[in-house]
TrEMBL record:
Residues annotated as domain HTH IS21-type: 302-363
Superkingdom to which the source organism belongs: Bacteria
Source lineage: Bacteria, Pseudomonadati, Pseudomonadota, Alphaproteobacteria, Acetobacterales
Protein name per UniProt: ISL3 family transposase
Organism: Paracraurococcus lichenis
Pfam families: DDE_Tnp_ISL3 (PF01610), Zn_ribbon_ISL3 (PF14690)
Length: 544
């Protein structure tokens, strides 16, 4: 034998399954055949459990095993048949069982089957088959899927679920749905249900009585299932779905004012806003980034002024830094400089610099087409691309006076009349975060439609409460909203008032379930049409 074979033969007892004795090693370039025999001299009858050492006959049993150094391993087990020594036993002979190695009639060892089963659960059938071939343990994709299904049919032990999220996932969007159950304390899927029926959810909850808190959306089928299966559990309505329902309600109200919205939009297009509410030209930053930068600089300036006052009163820099939450070195630098840094980087040179005079002249002549300006610059020797000239044109439009012929958004794009959904976003948004045309549109619409203004005000109060940015009580907010055109929405909320109140006091939501649904979609789409419920459930629970 070669040195490699001798090394293998010496170390095989620790590599092969327990209970087998190595008798011979038959190496080949792609396959390693190991002849083994059971160690025990006797075996128990599977019918009467009587031990027998009387060998009736022998036969060879072939078992695939885990690979060794990139080569397939085949165990040739010289198994035995024994005579049953119990006179009353119906069996005359029986084959010995390899309980610690492989089940009866199996063609692979248990440890190889476990590896291949996990391969099928993780990557699926065809992909798993290709990967298994590269790992020297070849198996067909169909076999991997069968092994994965069998693994999913056996329930895995898990700790009791106390906080549960219930949500739906789509087999086919708009046609067929299932139900996903997520343990919110561990952020893992505990089970999948093949349908979206109250009876299925109720049966699962009855089988898992440890559930005490259930987060759900506002679907009535889930509420019915919870009442049937866990009537004592605390239901928590998802706040995101409540906000979405509120937006839909405001949208339904705003649709009754479409005529006024279209007319005001035409007026904004014809006469763009050029002054602020006080009559002076607006000087607010054009973009949201600039507004945040300005607000941050103002906050740092206020900190510097407070630090200077405390320092003049005799406080130490360390004490001031602790009080204001600043670093000592930063505070010392600010006090020495007398101002806070703006962090504005100096403007670097641009390849447009030699052509700026031409661009400014053509812009003043009325040519605002970036593509045409770029073509003219190319004729003059400009080596850049169209995007560079387009960016310059965008900055030029932003810098244009607000009394220009066409209103523009905060991003410098032409303002367009808002759609129905965008009207709702403009009405519910903070006016400080809107561009001048959007702000003027929302203000004018609310001014001309008093009923809509009262409804939007009530909706904003409810929105702030659902976002936990208000100290008002739910009863007061709902009472105010009930006097507006949101009365129907409030009536629906009152039907589920217990879950809504729990949503304002408890931290649980269905957001983790939404993330798990994305994982379910990914797993379902990687199975190339083989996503039956048993297989999908097995793979999802394995991924959890």
């Amino acid at each position: 034998m070669s040195s490699k074979v001798w090394f293998l033969f010496e170390h095989l007892p620790s590599l092969i399954p327990a209970g087998l004795l190595v008798q011979q090693v038959l190496p080949s370039p792609d396959l390693l055949t190991i002849v083994v025999a059971p160690r025990e001299p006797c075996a128990a009858c599977p019918s009467c459990a009587t031990l027998s050492s009387h060998v009736h006959s022998r036969y060879d049993r072939l078992l695939q095993d885990v690979p060794w150094q990139g080569r397939q391993v085949l165990l040739r087990v010289r198994a035995r048949r024994f005579r049953c020594l119990a006179p009353a036993c119906p069996r005359l002979t029986f084959a010995e069982r390899l309980a610690d190695t492989a089940p009866a009639a199996a063609r692979r060892t248990e440890r190889l089957a476990d590896l291949q089963r996990h391969l099928g659960l993780v990557v699926g059938g065809e992909v798993g088959a290709r990967l298994a071939a590269r790992l020297a343990m070849p198996v067909s994709g169909d076999t991997l899927l069968r092994m994965a299904r069998r693994a999913g049919a056996t329930p895995q032990p898990r700790p009791p679920v106390r906080v549960l999220a219930v949500d739906e996932w789509a087999w086919r969007r708009g046609h067929r749905y299932g139900t996903v159950l997520v343990d919110l304390e561990r952020n893992s899927v505990v089970d999948l249900l093949p349908d979206r029926q109250a009876e299925s959810l109720a049966a699962w909850l009855k089988a898992n009585p440890s559930v005490a808190v259930i987060a759900r959306d506002r679907a009535g089928v889930f509420a019915d299932g919870i009442r049937q299966g866990a009537p004592n559990a605390t239901e928590v309505a998802d706040r995101w779905h409540l906000l979405r329902n509120l937006g839909d309600a405001v949208h339904a109200v705003a649709q009754h004012h479409n005529a006024a919205a279209r007319r005001i939009a035409k007026e904004i297009m014809a006469h763009p806003p050029c002054v602020g509410t006080s009559g002076e030209a607006t000087t607010e930053p054009a973009t949201a980034v600039q507004r945040r930068s300005t607000a941050s600089h103002a906050h740092r300036q206020a900190q510097l002024e407070e630090a200077a006052r405390l320092h003049a009163a005799g406080a130490s820099i360390s004490a001031i830094a602790r009080q204001l939450g600043l670093d000592r070195k930063t505070l010392r630098h600010w006090l020495q400089a007398g101002t806070v840094p703006t962090w504005h980087k100096p403007r670097r040179g641009s390849m447009l610099d030699p052509y700026r005079d031409h661009l400014e002249r053509r812009w003043s002549e009325g040519c605002h087409n970036a593509a045409r300006l770029w073509q003219e610059l190319v004729a003059l020797g400009f080596p850049g691309r169209t995007a560079i000239v387009g960016a310059w044109a965008t900055e030029r439009r932003r810098a244009a006076p607000t009394g220009s012929s066409m209103p523009v958004t905060a991003e410098g794009k032409p303002w367009r009349p808002p759609s129905g959904r965008r009207v709702v976003r403009l009405l519910m948004a903070d006016a400080r975060n809107l561009s001048p045309p959007d702000r003027a549109f929302a203000a004018q619409l609310l001014k001309e439609e008093p009923g809509l203004e009262i409804t939007v005000a009530a909706a904003k109060r409810l929105q702030a409460l659902l976002r936990r940015r208000s100290e008002e009580t739910l009863a007061d907010v709902l009472a105010a909203a009930e006097q507006t055109q949101l009365a129907g929405f409030v009536a629906e909320m009152r039907k589920d008032i217990g879950a809504v109140e729990a949503a304002l006091t408890l931290p649980w939501t269905t957001s983790p379930a939404e993330g798990q649904i994305n994982r379910i979609k990914m797993i379902k789409r990687t199975m190339y049409g083989r996503a039956g419920f048993e297989l999908l459930r097995a793979r999802v629970l394995h991924a959890a």
